[in-house]
Amino acid sequence: MRAWFCVPAAAAILICVLVLPVAAQSVTINATPSVAHLGDLVVLNGTVSGVNTIAVFLFLTGPDLDSRGVTLENLNIPTGRGLFTTAPVDMKQGTWMYLWDTSIVLGNMNPGTYTVWAVTSPVDRERSSREEFASAQITFLPTDTEPTPVPLPAGLTVAALGITIVAGSCMIRRLKNS
Is the residue at 39 inside a domain? Predict the structure, then answer.
């Protein structure tokens, strides 16, 4: 009699697994602008569906960075073990946004193409499954502003030349008198 109850129970479980719809988990990410200068503000935003989460976890991969990914604020810190950049999720809308100020990033960020990853659980790139991450590429160009030369007042150049001549003359007299 026990085997008789096991067959319907197994059939019910099989039907639930095969027939009942399963909500697909997904996350999206957009980066604006996709081509920026080092030091610019980059808007990262996207959506989350199929999972209740209060935040998405963001990290960066690219030239000379740890292959697992690094935090957006400090390129020297590999992601994982609780170290991530997070963006809060509006749970009613299923949207998220993060303003990334690349002028205050710690570490060496060179011009090149980088990938920003958004994941729904705190795992690095090597441990996340395809269903729980999205990525966007950003190409960073050298800084937009060249150092502005500070103009010297015209009189300062003449004064510096005069001081150099007087100091040189004094040194020559001292050497002759020694």
Answer: yes
